[in-house]
Amino acid sequence: MHMRLTNATAFVRYVGANHVSDYNRLDDWIERLKDWKAQGVKEIDFFIHQNIEKESPLLSAYFIRKLNEELGYNLVIPNDDTQGQQKLL
Does residue 1 sit within a domain? Predict the structure, then answer.
């Protein structure tokens, strides 16, 4: 499906399949979000949902780490003990 941006705000509801391919699909979204940012999008709300909800926090943490790495953000992963350890170094 072709997507067209009509303003500087976007909302994405990502529905995972509880499958290893979810991570590759999120990587594809990272690339799309980089393009959107370059095109002037100022706000992106990205909601991650899974059929088996216990996996949603894992996908979300992965996505936040990738966003921080690829787009230079400093988003916090809730309940992530490793972030606190990194700050101490």
Answer: no
